[in-house]
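Annex B, item 7. Sequence and structure tokens for protein A, then protein B.
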Amino acid sequence: MASERWKDDIAYAMIPFKLITWPIGSWPLQVYDMYSLLRCGLGTCCASLIVILSSMELYMGCTCYMACTDVEQNIVCLTTICCGLLGVLKITWFRIYANSLINNYNSALNDYQTIDNTKERDIMRKHAFIGRILCYSMLGFSYSSCVIYAINPFLHYDQDNRINITNEDIMLEYAIPSRCALEYFNFPTNMYKISILVETVLVILATTANIGNDVLFLNITLHVCGQVNILRMHFFNFDVKSPRIYNRFNALIQRHQDLIMLARELVDLISFVLLIELFIITILLCMIGFQFIFALKINNTIMIGKSLMVLSVFLTQLSLYSFIGNYLKSEMEEIGLSIYQSAWYNFPRKLTKNVIFVLMQTKYPVALQAGNYIVVNLSTYLSILKTSFSYLSVLRIILEV
């Protein structure tokens, strides 16, 4: 019965993330063979192809074919390039430094197999539930946005054909900005709908490479936060009167060290990726915000909707990293508070020295960092938003002049 229960818990906590990241070769518990390397290469190629096609559009000057859509097309190209670059970076980075995720996910498997307390199980299920909600909401919204971008060219194409069937100069739209690139490679226009379907698949895989790797990382970070929460509960309820007090307290200290090590592996893994992601998201927030202001000025409802949709995705990414980073930091800090609220004054004199060392360690908690010097928490989140809105307010004044 217990075996079936932990199997169900593991399936509940990990199956959605396996289904998402296995096709692109990022799943930490996979067999790292040639087949997984091919899947990783496929995901990298799809994200790279998006970057190449959009870059060719900008280089060939194909985003300026209509004055009213000049701003929109340029920003779409830049946004697509940034998303593709993030997808390539995350796939390759998580593949090269896969040991950090492998160690954390193996530790999570062991946690589910050794759990023997209903309250601890509820805490783990709660954090797994939050991870699933984040996964479904982020990927659901991102995939729906991809589908909307893919359907839009179909609708425009059918409408243009109904209005003027004999017009051979209809400006074709694609799911990825790639009109001039495909013309450069002499891609036949009679395969227009097939090309849109292929590009839609490319966009979905690139979105998985970007957002899918994010939810994979955030899910295991939430699990570590849950384990720290359980450890806090053990410190707070530590029974001084029970026998083998030294062994039991030293086991808690060892567990604390293990969690610090696991958390630091995650922080080291995401440090460079998070630095690039924060830089790109900050720039994109300004650019898409400018597009939104411009759309309001010219009363372009479609551009307003697209801008809000893309802004929501990037703000969600930034918000989740900031909130979960803040949560991890606060949980690590409150280990010291839990020990202080326990019956430490009844500890043997020799054991109180260990308490002091643990309290000293909690003064410098593990936290998500971008580039090992920018702590990603709510303060960073508010600072980025403040800077972006200040920049947008200046652009809005320039547009009104």
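Protein B:
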Amino acid sequence: MNIDGLRVAITGAGRDTGRLLAEAFAEHGAQLFLAARSLAAAERVAGVISQRGPGQAEAFRCDLSEVDSVRAFAATLADRTEYLDVLINNGAEYIEGDDLGDVSDEQIERVMAAGGTGTLLLTKHLMPLLRASPRPDVINIISACGEVGHRRSGAHPAFYAAKHAHAGLAEILSHRLRPEGIRVVSLFPPDFVQDGPRQANSDLTARSVVDCVLFAVGQPRDCFIREFHFEQVRH
């Protein structure tokens, strides 16, 4: 697995799976650009990583539900680096609820904006940096909620809708960017836990999701893995 020195941008990097992704890539020597809705959260993660090494990290604010914030992050990144090897679209806002009326209009708007418009615009604005890399990858942490027919999550319908939007974007990009050698890899994990025993009868863990990402990025350039789908523990 040759990840040392790769320039990697991760959204939603201030906590949970985003933080684990950042730490894992840093352990392999990657140079990280960490974005989060809370700059303070991203700075905490970047500080720990830069002290621990071998990879180094910078922190940025990027609220995917705000168009100006997305554009500002992309512009700042373009000032920091001439190219980007890996973009990990991990940022999303999760909300629960069975009925459309269980959450406010404002929450629905944020979830849809972050998972749909914000992710699309960030990918658009970072595409020049990816095209400048000799080995570009776009990694999409979607969700089983983005699979057709999946009904086992307690997520609100708005989260399902946002994840279907993300899945649609990833599918067409995989097809259209393949001739350029840009790999677009999507993961569709079911609801998972941040940590756990990682056994066959246990829920999927975030660390296992991270390992799948590392595996995909570390493959030779003739290996185009389009999607990871997971069996879910039946309770």
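Comment on protein B: DSSP finds six helices and seven strands in the chain.
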